[in-house]
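Ticket #4471: structure export looks truncated?
Reporter: QA, pipeline team
Priority: medium

Steps to reproduce: submit the single chain below to the structure queue and open the exported record.
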Amino acid sequence: MTRSKEAKSQTVPYQGEQLRVCWRFHHNDIVFDMDVLAGKILAMFSSFNKETLDLHELFEAGGNDPDARTAVLDRVERLVQDGLLEERGNDFYALTREGRLTIGHDH
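Actual output as written to the record:
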């Protein structure tokens, strides 16, 4: 199959939210583009250069708005369900191997 960087996308419902799905033409991969907030949460591990982060550090992804903090909590729970984060107890979270792969850090 010819490698191509072209992609087509469409929005589909996923766990009560809209998710953009991209079909890439090389290797027929299906790529899920996660929402911006989930991406910020995962990227914080690199930003802080830490293996684990507590929930209060992760709240910074949403800013000071109480509704944004609630959204961060919801996204963290979903990232745990999706296998990208794991709970470490006492409100600490760590990236799983899949989470590290998602943000391009597999160490």
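Status: closed, not a bug. The export was complete when the record was re-opened. Leaving a note from the reviewer for reference: Residues 1-33 form one domain.
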